[in-house]
Specification:
1 helix
Length: about 280
Amino acid sequence: MIFSFLRFKRHLFVVSLLTLFVACNEELPSGVIDTSQVNLIVKKIIASGQFSYSQVDSLYKFQVEIDNSDNVLDFWIRLRLSDGSEAFIDQLPLKDDGDLSNSGDNRAGDNIYSALLPMSKQFPSGKYVIEGFVLEKNDPSSETRKVFSHYLDYSNESENYPPEITEIMAPSSGNVNQRITLSVRVSDSNGLNDIAEVYYELYRPDGTQVQNSQGISKFPMFDDGNSSINGDVTADDGVYTVFLTFPEGQPSGQWRFIFGARDRSGAVSNPVEFDFILN
C-alpha cells in the first residue's frame, strides 16, 4: 500500500544526528594531522572559517604555510561536506607560484601555498571541511598523505526551505520475524544535496517509544543504493529506505512510525505518521 502526502504543514524543530546499528558519520580530524609520516610541517593555515557566495565574489582564497617546500612533489586540497557524504572540489592544486590571478598566491617561493576555490550557488549551505594532501619527492611508497583539515561554514545566500516528506511506501501490516522494507520519498526546494538526514521514530501499541541499547530513538534511513544492506534501490534519488524486523516477543497491535528529515541548515521537515499492524 502506498500513502502519498502532499504539502504538509511545516513544523520546525531541532534534532540530533542519528546512529542505528552502524555509525553514520566519519569522525573527522581537526587541525594539522599526519605530520609524523611526512618531512614537512604545516605551520599555519591562512583562511577564513566562513564564506558567503555572491555573484561579485565566488572565489574562496585558501593558503597554507609550510616549513619547507624542497621536498614537495604535489600538494592539493579537497572540499567536501563535513559529514563526509560528498566531495564538491577534488584535487585542486596548492601552488607557491606568485600567480595572484589564478592561484591567489602573493609571492613565489615563500613556502605559502595558495588556491582559489570556485564556490558555487549550487553547493548547499552548511559546514564543509578542506583537506590537504601532499606527495613528497623522496617518499619511496609514492603515497599521497593527508596533512591538514580546515573547517568552513558556507552560505550560498539562497533562501532556505525545510525538506518535505511527500510519500511513504510500506506495508500496512506484517508478522514477527518478517523483514519489512520502509521507504519514504523526500524533496527539498534547495536540492537533494541539502538533505542531511532522514529518520524514523517508532512507538509501541501502548504508546511507549522504542529506543536502542544506546538510548537512541531516532533511527536513520538511507539513500545510498545499498539494496542488500538496507533495501535502497537507487542512490541519491530522494527515496530513503531501511529494513526492519520485529523480533519474537514484541506486542501485537497498532505500532506507529513518525518519519522526519533535516537539512544542512538544521531546518526539519513536517513529521509524518504511519500506522502499522503487527499480527
